[in-house]
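Researcher: Sequence recovery benchmark, item below. Answer with residues only.
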């Protein structure tokens, strides 16, 4: 693993192969990925735009913002073929830029044996975790008979899992998937050894950390800050850091999603890094949230 000893790490980035970037909606139609199409197509009621960038563009944006390393996350694809396509693309990215890029794999649990075989193949190809996973997107739950074996396999492989979690109290947006917080707790309680990264501040679970049950279930989990500027006021960062501890909050952006819709005209990382520094400055935890949390979580130190 080539996670650097120092510098900012973005723990939540999505990239797609060039053929997807060239025509996302047409590709989604041909590929049979209806859910993803709904998430990315331009529509009048969509305030937040998805960007599509190349690996080289990502590297330039990292340089411009002072981001040392990123973790690429897969998508919750409907078809195993699409998962495998993305995993192969990510393996290429990691091979080409091991010092700048790490990647998690994605699988579809509808064909369990195929998914487990793909996880092993992805590990051999250099991928280091599973995510971003969202069983609810397919009408499933993390602890049902389709998905639990996938998470058990992650435990067996000692792979961290990034789980998408939606705040039940957040506004309705196109493509929003409900992810009951009870299901997240049930997963953590069923598999206490599962190394969970809960995306988007765990859909607000980070704020509930003072609760006995939440803390007991999630004490070994960490939260990422992907898309948080869209979901919470700046005080949300401080609230999460206060409730869960800076050592359990990891900087993530959801790049190339444009998470500052009022000011952002193209994908980039500079605004996110500036916000990280600003909101963490008072508590002196920018280094912790900006890199140390994910570094220690992935290295198990
Ligand atoms: Zn997500």
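Model:
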């Amino acid at each position: 693993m080539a996670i650097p000893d120092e510098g900012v790490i973005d723990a939540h980035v999505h990239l797609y192969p060039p053929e997807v970037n060239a025509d996302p909606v047409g590709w989604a139609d041909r590929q049979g990925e209806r859910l993803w199409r709904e998430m990315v197509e331009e529509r009048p009621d969509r305030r937040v735009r998805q960007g599509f960038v190349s690996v080289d563009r990502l590297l330039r944006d990292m340089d411009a913002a002072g981001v040392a390393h990123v973790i690429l996350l897969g998508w919750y694809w409907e078809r195993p073929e699409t998962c495998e396509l993305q995993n192969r693309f990510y393996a290429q990215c990691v091979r080409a830029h091991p010092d700048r890029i790490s990647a998690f794999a994605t699988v579809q649990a509808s064909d369990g044996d195929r998914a487990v075989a793909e996880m092993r193949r992805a590990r051999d190809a250099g991928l280091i975790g599973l995510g971003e996973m969202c069983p609810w997107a397919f009408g499933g739950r993390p602890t049902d008979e389709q998905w639990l074996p996938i998470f058990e396999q992650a435990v067996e492989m000692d792979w961290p899992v990034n789980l998408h979690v939606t705040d039940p109290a957040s506004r309705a947006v196109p493509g929003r998937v409900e992810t009951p917080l009870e299901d997240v707790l049930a997963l953590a309680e069923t598999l206490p050894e599962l190394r969970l990264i809960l995306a988007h501040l765990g859909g607000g679970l980070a704020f509930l950390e003072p609760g006995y049950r939440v803390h007991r279930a999630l004490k070994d989990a960490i939260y990422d800050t992907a898309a948080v500027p869209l979901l919470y006021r700046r005080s949300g960062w401080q609230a999460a850091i206060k409730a869960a501890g800076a050592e359990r909050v990891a900087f993530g952006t959801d790049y190339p999603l444009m998470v500052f819709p009022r000011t952002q005209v193209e994908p980039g990382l500079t605004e996110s890094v500036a916000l990280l520094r600003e909101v963490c400055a008072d508590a002196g935890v920018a280094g912790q949230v900006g890199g140390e949390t994910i570094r220690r979580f992935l290295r198990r130190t």
